[in-house]
Amino acid sequence: MTARYFATASALAFTAHAIPTYAQDANDIAQPSTGPDVAGEEVIEDVSPSAEAARSSNTIIVTATRREESIQDVPLSITAFGQEELTKKGIVGFEGIGRETPGVILNRPTQNFNNFTARGIATNGYNANLSSTVSVYIDELPVSTIGNTTVVDPNLFDVERVEFLRGPQGTLFGSGSLSGAMRIITKSPELGYFDTAALVDFGLTNDDSFRQRYNAMVNVPIGDKVAVRAVGFYRDEEGYLDNLGTGVNNSNTLIDYGGRLVLLFQPTDRLSIKLLGSYENSDPKDSSLTSPSLGEEKRISDEPDRFTGKQLIANATLEYDFDWATLTSSSTYSDFKQRFYVDLAGTFAPGSFPGAPIAFGLDADAFDNVFVQETRLASSLGGAFEFVVGGFYLNRRRDVDFLYRSNPAFLEARGLTGLPDKYFQEQYTYSISEEIAAFGELTYRFSDRFWLTGGLRYGEISAQGFTEAGGFLATGTTPFIPGAQTNYYTAALFGIPLNFDTFTPYEAVEGVKAKGSKPSYKLAASFKPTQNITTYATFATGFRAPIVNAAAGRPSVAPGGENDIIIPFGATSDDLKSYEIGAKAVWLDGRVTANLAAYYIDWSNIQVQANRVSDSVQFATNIGAATSKGIEFELGVVPATGWFLGANGAYNDAKITELTAAEAAISGAEIGHRLSAPRIQGAAFVSYTFNLADDMEATLATNAQYIGEYNSSFPNQPGNPNVRLATFGQTDAYTNVNASFGVTKGKLGAQLYVENIFDDHSITYIHPEAFLISRFGTLRPRTFGIRLSYGI
Question: Are the CB atoms for 783 and 774 separated by under 8 Å?
C-alpha cells in the first residue's frame, strides 16, 4: 500500500513541478564539490578588495580564514558546498558531506552520532572520551565534543554554504581542529527583499519504508533597515531495520523537526546586528547498527537503543566596519539535552559465565550548557598587509546521569528482588571545561604573485569532573555468599537469587583538574606563477586538550576482573605537525578547474581510546607516534554547453610508527598498524542540462562515491597484547551510486531520484566496543524518491 501510494503521488507531482539545474556555460556555473573547492552557488558578503576581484572572475568566495578570500587563493585544501548542490544531491546532513569530500570519511554508527576523520588522523571510528580530531561549527558555535556523546544531525536547508577545511586549523578554530574543520554557515536575512523557498522530499526504501522531508523559508523585510528570516523543517523517515529483540519492524525510524529565526538590523552602512535563535529535536526511535549474522537489515537489543538530542541555540553577532577593518563580536549560548540509552548485553558473552548473557544496559541522560564568545578584527586595508586578530572564550558544563539497568522480565526469571524499578546503579556526575585563547594571522603580499601568511594561537584549556552526592549502588545478601554484600553483576552472572536490601549512596567527589596550554602555529607561502595558477606550501601544528579518566585508579569489579588493568589517570595533550604543498588552477575561462595537494603529518603522544576487557570500561591513554601521508585531487570540467564532469580522489597511508611495549600492552596497538582511514577513496559526478522548451530545462545527473576498507580499531586486547581483540575488523570497500532526472520551470522544480542504485549493503562502520551485540553500520538500502522545490 505504501509503495502504491508513493508511486501515485510521485507521478502526479512530477507533472507539475521542476528542480533547479546547473548553469550551461562556464561564466555562470554552479559546480559540485567533486570539482575543486567549488560550491553550488557564489556567495559574496561584505566585499573586500580581494573578494571584489574574485567576484569579477566568477571565483567562489569563502571565509575559511575568517576573512573573505577567493577559494583559489587560500593556502589550504577546502571543499565548499552551496545550497543548490546540497539540494541536487539530496544532502541533508553530515553523511553526504563525508562521502563527497576527498580525504574525509564520516564514522556514523547511527543518527546523531557523527565523527569525522580527515587525512587518516583517527585510531578508531568512535573515539570514546576523546575530543574529535575535526571541529564542527554551526555559524560561530563549535558543536563537536567527544566521541561517545550525541551530536545532532543539522538540517542543511537554507545554508549559505558548507566549508570543509582539511589539515590542522588550530590557529583560527581551536584545539578540536587537529586534522580539519567543518563550517556550516546559515543564510542571513536580506534587507529590502521578500523571498520564500520550499523543498519537499518523498522517498521509498524497500517497499514499506516511507521517507518524508519538509522544509520552508520566508524572508520578510521590515522597512529598509530590518529583515527577518524564518526557516522550519520536519522529517519523518521510517526505518528499514527490524529489531528481533523488541519485535519492532522498521525500528530505526527518525522524527526530526525544528526551525531557525534570524533578525538583521542594519542601522547604518557600517553597523549590523544579527540575532539568531534555532531549535532542533532529533528523535531516532532505535539505533541503525545491525547484526549481519542475524540476516540482512536485522539488529537485536532488549530495548531500543536511543540516541536523541534537543538543541537550542541563541546567538548575537555584531559587526562594525571601520573602513580599514571589520570588528566582529559573536556571543552564543547553547542548551543541549541528549539521551544515550544503550543495551550493554554484549559485555558478557554467552558461555563466559554460568549465567551469561544477562540483561544489562545503560540509560544516560546528559545536559550541556555552553557559552562561546569570540571577538575578532579583520583588516580590509587593500595593501600589502592584511591581518586577523581575536580572542576566544568557551565555557561548557555537562551533567550526565548514569543509570545502569536490568529489565523486569530478567529480574523475575532470575529471582532478583528488592529493586524499586529496573535500575541497580545510579550515579550523577558533571564536568566543567573552559577554553580561553588569543589568535591572529598576518599576511604580507610582496607582490600580486607572492605572499606569506603566519598564524599563532595561544590559550589555556581546563577540564574537571565531579561526582554528586547521592545515587546508589544496590547490593544484597545471599546464603550462597555468607556475610558478604553481593552486587547485580555477581548475582546475575552466576545465577544466584538475591534480594537487594542495601542501597549505598555515592559520596561527592571532586576530580583532578586537567589543564593544558600550548601554542598552535601556521606558516604558509603562496606563489602564482601565472594569473590562473596558485601554488602554496603550508606548515601547521595542532593538539588536543588533556583528558582525565572518570574511572582513574578504579579496579574492575566484574567477576574475573581482579587481574585486569587498573584504569590509568588519563591522557596528556597530543602533538601534530603537518606539512602540505598544493596547487590550484583555472583554465579556459573557468571551464577547467583542478586542485592538487600532498601532505605529510607527524602525530606524536597520540591520545587513544581503549576498553578494559573484563567490564568494557572506557579509558584514554597516550601512545608513541604515527605518520600520515597522502595526496588529494579535485577536478571540474565543462566540456561542452550543458555538460559538467567532476571528480575527486585521495590516497592516504597512515600507520603507527613508534610504540613502547608498555604502550602496546595498555592500548592494544602494534607497530605498522594502519590507522582507521581508507587507503583510497574518490567520487565522480556527471550532469547534462538541456532545454525541454523555451522556459523549461531538464538535467540528467549521476554521482558515485568509492570508499576503501579500513580498520575498526587497534588489533589486540588492551592489557593482553598477545591476544587478538574479538571486536577487531575491517569495513568493506564499497561504491555508492545515485542518479536523478529533474526539470525546472521558473522557480518551480521537480526531481526524480534513486539513491544506492545497486542496493549495496556493505559494512561501512564497525563499532570497536564489545558491549554492543549489533555493531555494524551499513548503507541505507536502495531508495526511490521525488523532490519538489520552489525558489531554490
Answer: no
Beta bridge partners of 329: 318, 375
- Comparing CA positions, the residue from 456, 397, 466 lying closest to residue 427 is 466
Instruction: Give 347-350's long-range contacts (Cβ < 8 A, gap of 24+).
Output: 347/615, 347/616, 347/770, 347/771, 348/493, 349/770
403, β-bridge pairs? 363, 426
Task: Tell me what the mean pLDDT of segment 83-111 comes to.
Answer: 87
Residues 6+ apart with CB under 8 A from 42: 55, 58, 60, 61, 82
> 129 by DSSP, 3-state: which?
coil
* Whether the predicted pLDDT of 649 surpasses 80: yes
H helix runs in 354-435, sequence order: 408-414
| Cβ proximity of 542 and 592 under 8 Å | no
pLDDT digits (tens, 9 = 90+) for 244-267: 999 999 999 999 999 999 999 999
Give the Cα separation of 719 and 510 in Å (integer).
Answer: 28
For 345-361, what is the mean pLDDT? 92
Residue 128 pLDDT: 64
Q: Mean pLDDT across the stretch 215-239?
A: 97
SS3 content of the chain, % helix, strand, coil (to 5): 10, 55, 35
* Residue length of the chain: 792
Q: What is the pLDDT of residues 4-14, one digit of tens each?
A: 444 434 433 33
Q: What residues have CB less than 8 Å from 182, skipping those under 6 apart?
A: 97, 116, 134, 135, 136, 137, 162, 163, 164, 165
Amino acid at 37: D
Instruction: Note whether 620 and 547 are within 8 A (CB).
Output: yes
pLDDT at 762: 95
Which H helix or E strand runs over 329?
Answer: strand 325-343
Cα of first residue to Cα of last residue in the chain, in angstroms, is 32
pLDDT higher than threshold 60 for residue 46: no
- Averaged pLDDT, 386-408: 94
Does residue 628 have a pLDDT over 70?
A: yes
Q: Which of 64, 153, 66 is nearest to 116 (CA)?
A: 153
Q: Is residue 47 within 8 Å of residue 59, measured between CB atoms?
A: no
For 137-173, write each residue's pLDDT tens digit. Answer: 888 888 876 544 557 778 899 999 999 999 998 888 8
- The pTM (predicted TM-score) of the whole model is 0.88
Exposed, middle or buried by CB within 10 Å (0-12, 13-18, 19+), for 434? middle
> What's the average model confidence in pLDDT over 221-228?
96
Residue appearing with cell numbers 521509498:
204
Distance CA 708, CA 410 (A): 42
Share of the chain above pLDDT 70, in %: 91
Report how far apart, in Å, the C-alpha atoms of 669 and of each of 211, 568, 675, 758 are: 42, 16, 10, 36
Residue 140, φ and ψ in degrees, nearest 5? -100, 5
* DSSP-assigned letters across all residues of 440-472: EEEEEESSSSEEEEEEEEEEEEEEEEEE-SEEE
Question: Which ranges in 144-250 belong to alpha helices (H)?
Answer: 170-173
Q: How distant, in Å, are the alpha carbons of 168, 331, 536 from that of 335?
A: 28, 14, 41
DSSP for residue 29: -
pLDDT of residue 419: 96
Residue 555 and residue 719 in contact, taking contact as beta carbons nearer than 8 Å: no
CA dihedral 481, 484, 488, 493 (to 10 degrees): -30
Work out the mean pLDDT of the chain and round it to a whole number. 87
* pLDDT above 50 (res 586): yes
Q: What's the CA gap between 52 and 355, in Å, rounded?
A: 72
Question: What residues form DSSP beta bridges with 647?
Answer: 635, 684
Name the CA radius of gyration of the chain, rounded: 27
Q: What is the pLDDT of residue 626?
A: 97
506's grid cell: 555515592
